[in-house]
Description:
2 copies of one chain form a homodimer.
Chain A: E1 4-9, H1 13-23, E2 36-42, E3 48-55, H2 57-67, H3 76-82, E4 87-90, H4 103-112, E5 116-119, H5 123-139, E6 143-144, H6 156-162, E7 168-174, H7 177-187, H8 192-201, H9 210-213, H10 216-229, E8 240-241, H11 249-257, E9 260-271, E10 274-285, E11 299-304, E12 309-315, H12 319-336
Parallel strand pairs in A: 1-2, 1-4, 4-5, 5-6, 8-10
Antiparallel strand pairs in A: 2-3, 7-9, 7-11, 9-10, 11-12
Helix pairs in contact in A: 1-2, 1-12, 3-4, 4-5, 5-10, 7-8
Amino acid sequence: MAKLRLLLAGFGNVGRRFVEILADRKSYPGLSELEVAIVAVTTGQHGAWVNPAGLAPATILETYRTRGGFPDSRTTLDAVRTLDFDVLVELSPLSIAGRGEPAIAHVREALSRGRHVVSGNKGPVAWAYRELSTLARARGVRFLHEATVMDGAPVFNLQRHCLRGNTILRLEGILNSTSNMVLGAMERGLSLAAAVAKAQAMGIAEADPSADLEGWDAAVKLTALTNVLMDADIKPEQIWRQGIAQLTPQDLAVAQSRGRRIKMICEAFRTDAGIQGSVTVQELPLDHPFARAEGAGSVLRIHTDLLGRLIIAEDGPDLSTTAYGVISDLLALSECN
Amino acid sequence: MAKLRLLLAGFGNVGRRFVEILADRKSYPGLSELEVAIVAVTTGQHGAWVNPAGLAPATILETYRTRGGFPDSRTTLDAVRTLDFDVLVELSPLSIAGRGEPAIAHVREALSRGRHVVSGNKGPVAWAYRELSTLARARGVRFLHEATVMDGAPVFNLQRHCLRGNTILRLEGILNSTSNMVLGAMERGLSLAAAVAKAQAMGIAEADPSADLEGWDAAVKLTALTNVLMDADIKPEQIWRQGIAQLTPQDLAVAQSRGRRIKMICEAFRTDAGIQGSVTVQELPLDHPFARAEGAGSVLRIHTDLLGRLIIAEDGPDLSTTAYGVISDLLALSECN
């Protein structure tokens, strides 16, 4: 099998962890059949590096660590347009203000050139799934995105391979780690600001946490799931959205005094008018399957017509979990290569 | 695509529900591509029925309902040896005393004749997986068994398609519905005998509940999972086994007074001496992911080297969930046909 030549766009936490796993691949017996070569790395603000013969993972990491970036200045879009590669690994940061751009342009360009795409960026799946998946089919390549929702836990692969014959009637889940961690800390008495600062210190919350607290990140993930698993064609702006920024520790204490917990819940279901989605703040009784969700782990309940209700949950995910989502897609491409 | 001709061995609860779904298949849009014909039904004590042109599902159900059985007297083994069919659907009852026989003989005979097998009977997977899977590969056919553990929830398919590249380090779960329901009822003050009677009245517990209460059913399921997901080659007798028959409502009340719940837990993990498995009665703190498991729903936590820990759980399964496991395997065969 020929090596898959990767163009790695983005070198944030997930990109670095992905390259670390490649550098340390001998520790993982199951990766013996993963044949990849990184022929280019591009970033938004830390330069780029191109070598058609392949850049050694350890060298990429060492260069970034010692120089704080890479020696070239090529943009991702230019690299996608001009370099020779087999797979675009799109790990640039999500832009909600940009409605998924510029990642959508990167993915569109790669697919148009007949190259596979593995995206860890949710934007292209949430804002342009139907266009991009149609384009991929037309070009005979694949658009994979397991790392976009629930880190690398298999949600898209589950539906593709494990739910044959089922119609998915409803999706429900806790999909945003930051808001779930913040709600847990507020139950323990912290103010919203202190809880956010704590999640930031742990590397979970972003410098600007508003996308998490206002339910935008959850809405983007729910849209991605709904477009792929329920064949919808909606955009995150169509999700009814309620955030947690207005909550106080007193609100959570009152809920707890009633034996309930406040959670940010994503839901999508079929109606006569099409598929509806919402991100809402709900009080759950303690025997609800989501009531015990703690910390960074997401949980999803899938309602089907044949199998009934299936729950899939992460238990203590970390950066490796997300990086695994990328690896899992590359292994799927290797099988077909 | 040619129709898959099924030999249905066994017509208990799951077999009947499977045929009911086939009779009602127009209600399930996802089944439009399932092309099957039942060319024979065999049972242990209720006769058999053979028609090479195919038996209509509704007619099978009506005949069984009105006559209490089928008109012929052919045994399953004879049918497997002599009839022409594409897939043996093995749904005969598990025999723990028989160490998986006679189902193993049925499966071996079908595979030897180059026929696919879809088993809902755990015995062949628990006592003879390595032999039977090797035989299937040698004959170019498939031995599928999604309905054997966690009803039809995708555990074997999950590992086959969704955990690429991972090494499974450990499995933990609650896999026996009856004992979990009995423990729940005993927490509410019922005696063991009353709790068992209640589970029997609900159609969950068998007339002889000892295999459930003594941990045998759980050990058989854990063995099946371990043999397939961890490439072990163990038998249920090698699982260290502890039952719940000695527990009293007082034991459960004492645990609850400590903020804990008593559960029957299956575990399998790698050691230098090979893979070890156990079924034990444990007190779990309420924040343990299994502590809230109620009723008939099973739950499994899979520890991997790359993805981390993944939890998959059924939420309120019923007979359709198990029957779906059979259908899911048939759909997988249809794709390859």
